[in-house]
Structure formats: C-alpha cells, structure tokens
Amino acid sequence: MLERAQRFSAEIKRRRSVRHFSGESVRREVLVHCIEAAATAPSGANKQPWTFVLVTDPALKRRIREAAEKEERTFYGGRAPQRWLDDLASIGTDADKPFLETAPALIAVFAQKHGGEADERHYFVSESVGIAVGFLLVALHHAGLAALTHTPSPMGFLGQVLERPPHERAYVLIPVGYPADGCRVPDLERKPLSAVLVTRD
After folding, report:
1. Tens digits of per-residue pLDDT, 10-59?
2. For residues 17 and 8, what is the distance between their CA atoms, to the nearest angstrom?
3. How many Å is the maximal CA-CA distance in the chain?
4. What is the Cα gyration radius of the chain?
5. Is residue 22 in a domain?
6. Which residue has the higher pLDDT, 39 or 187?
7. What span, in angstroms and rounded, lies between the C-alpha atoms of 5 and 8?
8. Does 44 reside within a domain?
9. At what angle do helices 28-38 and 125-142 cross, to 10 degrees?
10. I want to staple 171 with a disulfide (CB 3.0 to 4.6 A). Which of 111, 118, 133, 149 is the partner?
11. Residues spanned by the domain of 65
12. In DSSP terms, which residues pair with 172 in a beta bridge?
C-alpha cells in the first residue's frame, strides 16, 4: 500500500499545465474513458450534477476561441486588478488563447444548478463538480495526456456556443492533447508538504 501511494505521488508530481499543444490527434476512446472515470466522483446526494462536452470539431473550437478571447481582452484590458495581473506575469499568460484551437480536443465541464426539471434539487454543486474535475485531470495525466484548466470570466458564451440548457453553468474548459515539440512550462515552485499538512496525532 505504501509503495502504491509513493508511486502515485511521484507520478502526479510530474503533472504540469500545458499551453502549447501539438496538433496530433488523441484517440476518442482514451478521452471517453477519462471522462468516465471523472463521472465516478462523489457528489452531494449522489446527484452527479455535471455534464462533460467533448469538442473536436475545428470550426467549433475556433468559435470557442474567438468568444473566449473576447472576454479575455476585457479581463486583461482593465477588468482585472493590477495585483492579479502581477501574479499572472510569471506564468506568461495574456488574452491570446491559441491552445483552444491547436489542442486536438476540448472538454467543457458544466455544473447543473438543478436537474432537468426545476424541482429536482442538486446539492453542493460547485464542490461536487470540482472533485469530478480533479478526477478528470488525474485521469488525463495518467493516460499520458497534457491538459490545462482554462476559466475565462464570464463563461456564459460557452453554454451558448455549445447549446447547453439554461440550468447548466460553464465551470471550466480543458484543452487536452500532447505537448508541442519544444514545449516549455513556467518554472513553478510547489509549497513544501510542511506548509500544507497539519497533523494532530
């Protein structure tokens, strides 16, 4: 058991967010199995308040990119506080999001505020969908794929482009694929375990 825990810890430490993807296609079955794993996540009252939309159509990816960049230009052009922009500077992000087209697949995750019928209640929706997204990122990494969590704000455009019903709210957009040749990622430093773990023996 200890060995399995150590192996998993070592594997997941290698996961990094990637913003430069190759155009190499990914087998649909791999993505579907990763989404299937994500859909096993625990949820409030087992309501499973999530929808995963898998997008590989180039024209649809272009529409998503155009809509996302419109929001991002507003964000970087004045909506974001300077401190937020300063914190993002080391990552090197800006309003241009070419990865939304170059990545062979996008997985849009939607949170269901309630069921298909308005009187079907869902509970702890954000928490439940967040756990499912965590499962998804781990599954994609384990399968040998790179991914990025992209959250332009607001994301109402995503529901419109993907024709989702009103009770679904866009939660996160995840480009998925293989890193481009020569892909580089920011040299980030993780907090040491001693800074995030508290034990009460």
Report:
1. 999 999 999 999 999 999 999 999 999 999 999 999 999 999 999 999 99
2. 18
3. 56
4. 18
5. yes
6. 39
7. 5
8. yes
9. 140
10. 111
11. 16-180
12. 109
- φ, ψ dihedrals at 135, nearest 5°: -55, -45
What letter does residue 5 receive in the DSSP assignment? H
Residue 145: give its domain's CATH number.
Answer: 3.40.109.10
The neighbouring-strand residues paired with 53 are 108
34 token code pair: 């990763």
Does residue 168 belong to any structural domain of this protein? yes
Token digits of residue 36: 């299937």
State both tokens at 25: 């296609």
User: For residue range 157-180, what is the model confidence (pLDDT) as tens digits?
Assistant: 999 999 999 999 999 999 999 999
pLDDT at 24: 95
Owner of token pair 């020569």: 182
Per-residue tokens: 157? 């455009």
Tokens of 167: 């009770």
Written as one letter, the residue type at 54 is: L
CB 101 within 8 A of CB 65: yes
Establish if 29 belongs to a structural domain: yes
